[in-house]
Write a structure and sequence with these properties.
This protein is an alpha+beta fold. It has helices at residues 3-9, 27-41, 140-145; strands spanning 12-20, 44-45, 48-49, 62-70, 80-81, 85-92, 100-104, 114-119. The protein folds into 2 domains: 11-93, Vcp-like ATPase, Chain A, domain 2; 95-146, no CATH class.
């Protein structure tokens, strides 16, 4: 068998993150709509935001959409054709819930309670855009998103 024919058939992972407004739609239904939209509108994928026209059926559900990663940690192409793409669509809603502080009571019983940490519901709107700045070992981000 010719090696070049095998290389053409190999799919390249394309990660698409879609932030949706809170809705009654099931994630699988939204994922199907996103895949249809991508199939109909994207011939070539590059990292960056995706523009969803206001008249598109998805527009009422989607807050933002972006191609966040092409390929793997070992191979990162500049662009990927639709026919080469193995689309990995990640759908999530950003939380607006305020963080909660854990409080430890002072051993002496006085009013000097201590707050050792603050718990944030994730993904949170205040941390939008920080994911890309995290430096982690190869494969960690992929495992966290799955």
């Amino acid at each position: 068998m010719d090696d070049s024919a095998g290389a053409v058939a190999k799919k390249i992972p394309v990660h698409v993150e879609v932030t949706v407004h809170p809705s009654q739609q099931l994630p699988e239904t939204l994922r199907a709509h996103v895949l249809t939209f991508l199939h109909d509108t994207c011939a070539l994928f590059r990292t960056g935001s995706l523009s969803i026209p206001p008249e598109a059926p998805l527009a009422s559900y989607v807050e933002s959409a972006a191609v966040t990663q092409l390929g793997s940690a070992k191979h990162t192409p500049d662009s990927v054709s639709f026919w080469q793409a193995d689309l990995q669509v990640h759908i999530f809603t950003l939380s607006d819930v305020a963080p909660e502080a854990d409080v430890l009571e002072s051993p002496e019983g006085d009013s000097d309670d201590m707050s050792p940490c603050t718990q944030w519901p994730l993904p949170h709107r205040d941390f939008r855009g920080l994911w890309e700045s995290l430096i982690l070992e190869a494969g960690v981000k992929e495992r966290l998103v799955e």
